[in-house]
Amino acid sequence: MATPTLEKAGTAAQDASPYITVTFRIRRFNPEVSAEATWQDFEVEIDPKERVLDGLHKIKWDLDGTLTFRRSCAHGICGSDAMRINGRNRLACKTLIKDINPAKPITVEPIKGLTVLKDLVVDMEPFFQAYRDVMPFLITKGNEPTRERLQSAEDRERFDDTTKCILCAACTSSCPVFWNDGQYFGPAAIVNAHRFIFDSRDEAGEQRLEILNDKDGVWRCRTTFNCTDACPRGIEVTKAIQEVKRALITRRF
Ligand code: SF4
Ligand code: F3S
Ligand code: FES
């Protein structure tokens, strides 16, 4: 297949242009066309200070409108554009071209372990089902309070790291245990359980621990740290999983 090319209009000032030509090698899949996924190259003129998401936009808007991927905020907040870039899970909107050796083709694939629906879009439902299963909301007993529920700064600090999750699935889809059969709850669900288990205001920690004591719960984690390496929010994912394991053994949280 001929490589589509996108070039900036030439001008006398072009010599000073920061633009370089980068090859995006993208995993394409359209179940309405073929049961097989294929690689397709696109050449794009891009400023190395731009992001992989900008390159994908240039391709979609100017070269091939059928290219399909998710994105929303474009600023690392919504978690919708996690993908495998040069073999590593990252957010396309937070990955600068200059940081990933643009001299070589940049490979872009869907995240692993979830069914690919089209191009870079995967079915996130199993991921969100595991999230729902850990009851990711504050559970309390008794009457509605008439004022805010107070918490010390130290108690708030206890689960601060796991509040940062944006549910991008970069962790779960980088976990070899999850790749194996997709039944493991996965690190993201455990991170979000941790956020409530260690919240001093919450009263359903025991319930959540029991949910994660399941054969597909925390004990399947093999401490491989892929999840921690993949997290675009810098959450210490493996540490959070270890803390949940410890809480299950000691019943202290
Ligand atoms: Fe994404 Fe990190 Fe949350 Fe996992 S823990 S879903 S990698 S933000
Ligand atoms: Fe998987 Fe992370 Fe454990 S990659 S095996 S959940 S440390
Ligand atoms: Fe929202 Fe990248 S588009 S996190």
TrEMBL record:
Keywords: 2Fe-2S, 3Fe-4S, 4Fe-4S, Iron, Iron-sulfur, Metal-binding, Oxidoreductase, Tricarboxylic acid cycle. Pfam families: Fer2_3 (PF13085), Fer4_8 (PF13183). It catalyses: a menaquinone + succinate = a menaquinol + fumarate. Its EC number is 1.3.5.1. One of its GO terms (molecular function) is 2 iron, 2 sulfur cluster binding. GO terms for biological process: respiratory electron transport chain; tricarboxylic acid cycle. Residues 155-177 form the 4Fe-4S ferredoxin-type domain. The keyword NADP does not apply. It is an enzyme of class 1 (oxidoreductase). InterPro entries: 2Fe-2S_ferredoxin-like_sf (IPR036010), 2Fe-2S_ferredoxin-type (IPR001041), 4Fe4S_Fe-S-bd (IPR017896), 4Fe4S_Fe_S_CS (IPR017900), Beta-grasp_dom_sf (IPR012675), Helical_ferredxn (IPR009051), SDH/FRD_Iron-Sulfur (IPR050573), Succ_DH/fum_Rdtase_Fe-S (IPR004489). Binds 1 [3Fe-4S] cluster. Binds 1 [2Fe-2S] cluster. Belongs to the succinate dehydrogenase/fumarate reductase iron-sulfur protein family. This is Fumarate reductase iron-sulfur subunit.
